[in-house]
Amino acid sequence: MSEDASHYAGPNRVFSGVQPSGDLHLGNYLGALKKFVALQDEMECVYCIVDLHAITVWQDPKVLAEQTRHIAAAYLASGVDPSKAIVYNQSAVRAHSELAWYFNCVARIGWLNRMTQFKDKAGKNSEKMSVGLYDYPVLQAADILAFKATHVPVGEDQKQHLELTRDIAAKFNHDFNTPNFFPLCEPLIKGPGAKVMSLRDGLSKMSKSDPSDNSRINLTDDADIIAKKIRKAKTDPGEIPGTKDGLEGRPEVANLVGIFAALSETTDEAVLAEYEGQGFGVFKPALADLAVEKLSPITDLMSRYLADPEELNRILANAADKAAEIADPIVGDVRKIIGFCGA
Ligand code: TYM
Question: What is the residue range of 110's domain?
Answer without folding.
Answer: 3-194+308-338
